Predict the 3D structure of the following.
Amino acid sequence: MSNILTHDAEATRKLGYLLGQCAQAGDVIVCAGALGAGKTTLIQGFAAGLGVDEGQYVRSPTFTLMQIYRGRHALYHFDFYRLTRADEVWDIGFEDCLEAGGVVVMEWGDKFLSVLPAARLEIRFDILSADRRRIVWTSTQDSYQHYHGVDMAAWAL
Ligand SMILES: Nc1ncnc2c1ncn2[C@@H]1O[C@H](COP(=O)(O)OP(=O)(O)OP(=O)(O)O)[C@@H](O)[C@H]1O
Ligand SMILES: [Mg+2]
C-alpha cells in the first residue's frame, strides 16, 4: 500500500505521470472515488507517463464508455459510471481489451469488482477539502509491486 496527499490537481497529475512510467503490458487498474475526486486528472498524467502524446486530450469517457490512447502500450480507459449491471461490462468490449495486452484503467471500476481480474492495482481517492485529495494505491497481488517503487523524491509538493 502506498499513499500520498495532493494539494492541487497538478500534483495528482504528477502522481499519475510517475505511475504511468511504471506501467507494464497487461496491467489492470481500478480508480475509485466520488465525482470530481480526481480520477480523470490522475489518468491524464498516467497517459503522459505511458508515453501518450500530450496532444491527445484525456477526459472521462462517461458517454463513450471507453477510449483508446496509443503510448508505450495501448491505454484502454473505461468509465463504469453509467453502467448499472455487471454484465454490461462485457457488452462494451472490456474482455477484448483485457486480452489485448495493453494497460486497462477504469474510472468507477469498484462498482463491479466481481467481474474484474483478481490481480489489479486499486487507486482510491478521498476528497479532504476543495483542493486536497488523499490517494491510496494498493495491489491485490505481488505482480503489481512495480507501482510501489514510485520515486517520492520526484515530488515537489
Ligand atoms: N488535489 C487535487 N487532485 C485532483 N483534482 C483536483 C485536486 N484539487 C482540485 N481538483 C479539481 O477537482 C476536479 C477533479 O476532476 P476529475 O475530472 O479528475 O474527477 P473524476 O474523479 O474523474 O470525476 P468523475 O467521476 O466525474 O469522472 C478538477 O476540477 C480538478 O481541478
Ligand atoms: Mg472522470
